[in-house]
Amino acid sequence: MPDNHPILTIPGSKSIALRVLIIATFLDTSLSIKNLPKCNDVLTLMRALQRLGFRIDSDGDQTFVTPWPVKSNHSVSVYIQDSAAALRFLAVRLAVLPGVNSKIELSPQLKRRPIVPLVELINIMGGNADYDGQFVIINGEERLSFDRKAEKYLALGQTSQLASALLLCSPSIFIDHQVLVSLLRNDHEKVSHKYLELTIGVMKDFGMVEDQYFCQEEGDRRSFNYANPRLYGIEPDFSSACYFWALGCMINKPIAIRIDKLESLQPDYRFLFVLSNMGARVTKTRDWISVEADSLQAVLVSMKDMPDQVPTLAVLAMITQGKVAMSDVDHLRYKESDRLAALLTGLKKIGADIVYRDRVLKVTPLTAAPPAVTIDCRDDHRLVMAFSLLKELYPQIKIAGSEAVRKSFPDFFHTLDLCRK
Question: Which residue in 59, 173, 212, 366 is deepest, having the highest Cβ count within 10 Å?
Answer without folding.
Answer: 173
